[in-house]
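User: Design a sequence. Structure:
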């Protein structure tokens, strides 16, 4: 098991990439709800939180692509190719 990036890190990045847009949508929805109810301060705070979550999601996606690229580079095989010669 000579891996540069542990499997748990890759799994955490994938889970975060799946769950982060859901969290962003919920926070933005509550922000809009608070804005419609007249709570401008709460809506502004949740808007900034959703912006931060969006930035974290972007960093997560870039990290996931880099981790998978490093793992593929270390493996040295194409995922679609066979081991036998044509």
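Assistant: Done.
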């Amino acid at each position: 098991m000579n891996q540069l990036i542990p499997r748990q890190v890759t799994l955490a990045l994938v889970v975060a990439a799946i769950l982060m847009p859901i969290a962003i949508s919920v926070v933005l929805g509550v922000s809009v709800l608070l804005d419609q109810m007249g709570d401008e301060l709460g809506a502004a705070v949740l808007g900034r939180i959703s912006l931060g979550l969006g930035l974290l999601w972007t960093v997560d996606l870039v990290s996931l692509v880099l981790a998978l690229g490093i793992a593929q580079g270390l493996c040295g095989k194409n995922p679609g190719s066979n081991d036998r010669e044509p």
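The helical segments are 7-36, 40-75. The two ends are 30 Å apart (CA to CA).
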